[in-house]
Amino acid sequence: MEKKLYTIIVYTENIAGMLNQVTAEFTRRMMNIDTITASSSSVEGVHRYTISLWGEEDSVHKVTKRIAKKVDVLKADYYTDNEIFFQEVALYKLSTPKVLADSYISRMIRHSTARVIEVNDNYTVVEMTGQTDAIVELYNEFVARDCILQFVKSGRVAVPRASQEKLSDLLFDEDYKRKAVK
């Protein structure tokens, strides 16, 4: 079977320890999480985890199903890249003397979707929001120019291409209402 990049979106009640419960399912199956982003969702009191990982569809399906069965998990779905809109954020800390000495570095910043957010005598901080490949490509360009001091990249922020968030349907489902009453 072919490994592909999958994004799992999990909605949970906002309860301490839920992230640990969710990530434990990956550990049990020896699956490595590539990125994870946690945030509130569009529904008050509901938390959202966006997890990306490389895997085979059968394994991703099984782990998603196990996560969905947890008591405080409201919804869990997995997606391929063509089923979602996603972005990541990266910060590049560059050597200001090297940036000033090499005009190509400034051109790279201008021609990408990046923007300069801080400049001082020692370093320049550049921010880029975009797809993983473009973020890594700009990083590699900075490495090739020997100007990178630090680099950090966020996990994915993603929404399904479906016209409405599936969680909103769930909130009106009778089984969910009975579960939520506890």
Give a verbal description of the structure:
With 182 residues, the protein is of the alpha+beta class. The protein folds into 2 domains: 4-84 and 157-181, 2-Layer Sandwich (Alpha-Beta Plaits), CATH 3.30.70; 87-153, ACT-like. Chain A, domain 2 (Alpha-Beta Plaits), CATH 3.30.70. The chain has helices spanning 18-28, 57-68, 96-101, 103-111, 132-144, 166-170, 174-181, and strands at residues 4-13, 35-40, 46-55, 73-80, 84-95, 115-119, 123-130, 148-153, 157-160. The strands form 2 sheets. Strands 5, 6, 7, 8 and 9 form a 5-stranded antiparallel sheet that branches. The protein has a 4-stranded antiparallel sheet with strand order 2-3-1-4. The chain is elongated and about 55 Å long. The termini are far apart.
List keywords for this structure.
four-stranded antiparallel β-sheet, Alpha-Beta Plaits, disordered C terminus, five-stranded antiparallel β-sheet, 182 residues, 9 strands, alpha+beta, 7 helices, 2 domains
Radius of gyration: 20 Å
Shape: elongated
Spell the H/E element sequence: EHEEHEEHHEEHEEHH
Number of helices: 7
Helix content: 25-40%
According to CATH, what is the class of the largest domain?
Alpha Beta
Q: Give the low-pLDDT segments.
A: 177-182
Termini gap = 41 Å
The tally of strands reads: 9
The CATH architecture term of the largest domain is 2-Layer Sandwich
What's the overall average pLDDT, rounded? 88
The description of the largest β-sheet is: 5 strands, antiparallel
Strand content: 35-45%
CATH homolog superfamily of the largest domain: ACT domain
Tally of structural domains:
2
- In the CATH hierarchy, the third-tier topology of the largest domain is known as Alpha-Beta Plaits
**Which class do the helix and strand fractions yield?**
alpha+beta
